[in-house]
Specification:
It catalyses: Fe(II)-heme o + 2 A + H2O = Fe(II)-heme a + 2 AH2. It contains eight helices and no strands. It has 295 residues and is mainly alpha-helical. The longest helix is centred in the N-terminal third of the chain and has 30 residues, at 53-82.
Length: 295
């Protein structure tokens, strides 16, 4: 039964990753209106006849999201009943269910009523939190509950990890805001400059894009510092050092893929890779925050 639980949690994690990517496809292809303002049906039908491409993309996203919502709820109940004594499992299970329902309701509201770009940008963030919660449940399923790994770091470095994790979420939001405001090419086909300069008019698409770039650069510097600090002072704790090695790798790949989005003129597959890498980075820092939280 334990093995089946582990396999199920892994499958659900991969499914959540698929939902994130499909949501990105909907945004990148402008398929959010593929069913008009009809929800949960699509133009009054479960499967619309003679659908256009954007309708197929939107319906597919809804169908997969609905099934994953059910899988997440089952996993949360299973995890809660299997390890009722573990407080972190209860928190993760509740978080996974709450945020996948919240992002579903937000998606429905975006279809029925028009939403501002600022509100729509939070949709990806909520999905990411649900994914990270499911991922951590999957990782913890391989732990001995009586001997959990506890990272022994200084209170200052622990706070640093918490703030880094929170800042990463803010950077994710700025990236989502770039997509939902149509600012992906706000700086033109240039990188690292923005329309030939390092400044932009406040409120313009260029300023939104530039804000995300600056936030991403700060994130990169912060992770480099955290990686160096962990390597220097906590080399005996392989999970911590390996965790920050992966975080450093992902943030480098994230920067490269971000530049490639500009150079490739919004290539869909490059953009999906960008979203995939940020999901890996978010999951990595989520786990690091978890193991330093333990007492």
């Amino acid at each position: 039964m334990k093995r089946f639980y582990q396999i199920y949690s892994i499958i659900t994690s991969l499914g959540m990753l698929l939902v994130l990517l499909m949501g990105a496809v909907v945004t990148k292809t402008g398929s959010g209106d593929g069913c008009g303002n009809s929800w949960p049906l699509c133009y009054g039908e479960i499967l619309p006849t003679a659908p256009k491409l954007e309708t197929i993309i939107e319906v597919s996203h809804r169908f997969v999201s609905a099934w994953l919502g059910l899988l997440v709820i089952i996993l949360a109940i299973w995890a809660w009943r299997r390890e009722p004594h573990r407080r972190e499992i209860k928190i993760l299970a509740g978080s996974a269910v709450f945020f996948i329902i919240l992002q579903g309701l937000l998606g429905a509201a975006a279809v029925i009523w028009s939403q501002s770009s600022a509100v729509l940008a939070s949709h990806f963030g909520f999905s990411l939190v649900s994914f990270a919660s499911v991922l951590l449940i999957a990782i913890l399923s391989f732990e001995d509950p009586d001997r959990p790994f506890i990272a022994k770091v200084s209170p200052a470095f622990k706070k640093n990890i918490y703030w880094l994790f929170a800042y990463l979420y803010a950077v994710v939001y700025t990236g989502a805001l770039v997509r939902h405001t149509g600012s992906s090419m706000g700086c033109g086909p240039e990188f690292p400059l923005c329309n030939g300069t390092i400044f932009a008019t406040i409120g313009s698409q260029a300023s939104i894009h530039l804000l995300h770039r600056i936030a991403a650069i700060v994130l990169f510097i912060w992770i480099v510092y955290a990686w160096y600090h962990a390597r220097k002072y906590y080399s005996d704790q392989k999970v911590v050092t390996k965790g920050f090695q992966f975080a450093l790798l992902f943030v480098i790949l994230q920067g490269v893929s971000g530049a490639l989005i500009v150079y490739s003129n919004l290539n869909l597959f490059v953009a999906l890779g960008h979203g995939l890498i940020i999901s890996f980075l978010f999951g990595t820092l989520s786990y690091l925050a978890l193991i330093v939280y333990r007492k």
